[in-house]
Amino acid sequence: MLAVSLATLLSACGGSDKTDAAESSGNEPSPSFAQTCSALVGTAVAGGVVTQATMTAASEGTVSAASWPSHCLVRGVMNQRTGIDNKPYALQFELRLPEASAWNSRFYYQGGSGVDGTLFTALGSYSGGGNERNALLDGYAVVTTDSGHIAETGVANGSFLFGADPQARDEYGDMQIPQVTAAAQTLMVKAYGSAPQHSYFVGCSNGGRQAMIAAQKYPDLFDGIVAAAPGFRLTQASIQGSIYQIQRTAQIAPKKADGSPDISLGLTASEKTVVADRILGACDALDGLADGMVNRLSACRPDPLEWVCKTGETEGCLSQDKAQYVKDIFEGPSTRSGERIYASWPYDPAMVSQFSNPFYSIFAGEASHIYTSPPTLTADLLQYALTADMDTEFRKLSATTTTFKRSGNDFTNAESPDMDAFKKRGGKLIIFNGGGDTAFSMNDVTAYYDKVSTRYGGVSQAQDFVRAFYVPGMSHCSGGAGSTDQFDAFGAVRKWAEDGVAPDAMVATARAAAGSANPGRTRPLCSYPAEAIYNGTGDPEVASSFSCKVPAASL
Predict the structure, then answer these.
(1) CATH number of the domain enclosing 39
(2) pLDDT given for residue 128 in this prediction
(3) Would residue 444 count as lying in a domain?
């Protein structure tokens, strides 16, 4: 509340050596490694202990992103305690260690999702859509964590109730990464006799936020980082995605039988079609080709008020109030005094799903329970979003109390352009975001990147260690009917970190499984501020017919 190029990228891999190693190990664990595995039980790690270490045979059947090789499954628990809310807490982790003969001497930290609260399976999922492999299959030691809490079941908004405990907030926000990494390092040394040669952090959404935390606050831990759809200003996004968006939608939404607004119908299906068609009409061909995709975001600046129906018009247009609503949502929220709360949104046709408010409940739960101080504990998130004073809740993001000594902005966000230490140690960071992502705005990514560029003396200097990519039409983390969402960001960051080959562009493919209208289409994803421009000749379905060009305004 999840980037790259090189060929078709149909399988997310980080290099040729790892796949061969993982496939050579066979299905059955070696007796010697089984003994090594079982000996890990009881190992002391920072703040805790290993509670489980068992060999797991390789999965059977067709290899997929959910498959695994023979490996040692390790689980541990740290920081066991009772919170100020009198509930039990602990920082749990899961580490999966491939057999020694298959380990590629690399470590993969798999970022979380939502507000965590689940001990995710440590397979090392790759970012981008349609992956057919994972990091564990490819020889990486992989770790995940629940970030210090387990979502409560059988109670209203149980996923968010940990927000009543300050330490649980901190561990969720930014404190789990070094402790879990240290535990994993201890266990890799014990299992393999050596520390990993290279370490990576990969995450999307909240995991992407954690990835940005890793680059800014823990710069010595990882060689390469992929921050996909990163909620690095998650606190502000939660206010935008709940209070602002819901209250603005309630002003024009039809009423249900009980008199409450139907916030899923800010726009009807036909009105959404009008918005998408108008955006395409204004911006689709700006890259030299009308193909149902908006590649030139820098030049796409339509005015929804120009879409108002003229006298006698009944189709292909909007009423005055609906046009103003569309304009307001794309512009994003400000306080009554004019202070910006969150970013504006790109005019990508896939953004029409924003008008169904797909993320309002998680954003409302986050804003009310976790990021504001003091929190608002409520069973009715919609009522909170409809009635909360936006300015008050916005101020509470930076507030502290005697109980909550760190603000939500402090423990959650990762919006500093200062990555001096990460740059100095040679770290490499890839950020990417979909144009149709209705959780986090690509405009927020580009604004952040502009700050980084300013800090380091220009785009070329910033690109020495961090690059950002726009994925037209892609939804949150992956998917999107109009997108080319299949690409290998992790392979790109590994090649950059280990071989010094920076990704100027990444080739992305459209997938039938993602609902693409043009399956098999490829497009270059260009390193910001460059944009994909059609060369004027060549197959319009092939990435090689496009070039990455920097807009004149960015030169």
Answers:
(1) 3.40.50
(2) 87
(3) yes
β-bridge partners, 527: 469
Residues 189 and 241 in one domain: no
C-alpha–C-alpha distance, residues 1 and 34, integer Å: 39
Closest listed residue to residue 144, CA positions, set 166, 119, 163, 162: 119
CA dihedral 257, 262, 265, 266 (to 10 degrees): 130
> Looking at the structure, do residues 201 and 246 belong to the same domain, yes or no?
no
Examine residue 346 and state whether it is found in any structural domain, yes or no.
yes
pLDDT in tens, 274-330: 999 999 999 999 999 999 999 999 999 999 999 999 999 989 999 999 999 999 999
Degrees (nearest 5) of the Cα angle 158, 376, 78?
A: 50
Q: Which two tokens stand for residue 256?
A: 């249900």
Mean of the pLDDT values across residues 427-441?
97
Amino acid at 517: A
Residue of 483, 408, 411 whose CA lies nearest to 442:
483
The verdict on residue 1 lying in a domain is no
For residue 138, the SS3 value is coil
Do both 183 and 286 map to the same domain? no
Residue pLDDT, tens place only, 346-362? 999 999 999 999 999 99
How many domains does the structure of the chain reveal? 2
Residue 152 lies in a domain: yes
CA distance 91 to 172: 9
Range of the domain at 332: 236-411
- CA nearest neighbour of 506 among 517, 516, 493: 493
Q: Report pTM.
A: 0.93
The residue with tokens 């990993």 is 196
Q: Please tell me whether residues 54 and 123 are part of one structural domain.
A: yes
Q: How does strand 106-110 pair with strand 141-145?
A: parallel
Residues 320 and 418 in one domain: no
Residues 325 and 404 grouped into a single domain: yes
Q: Are residues 95 and 44 in the same domain?
A: yes
What distance in Å separates the CA atoms of residue 507 and residue 8, rounded to the nearest whole number? Answer: 7
- φ, ψ of residue 179 in degrees (nearest 5): -70, -45
Residues 538 and 442: their CA atoms lie apart, in Å, by 29
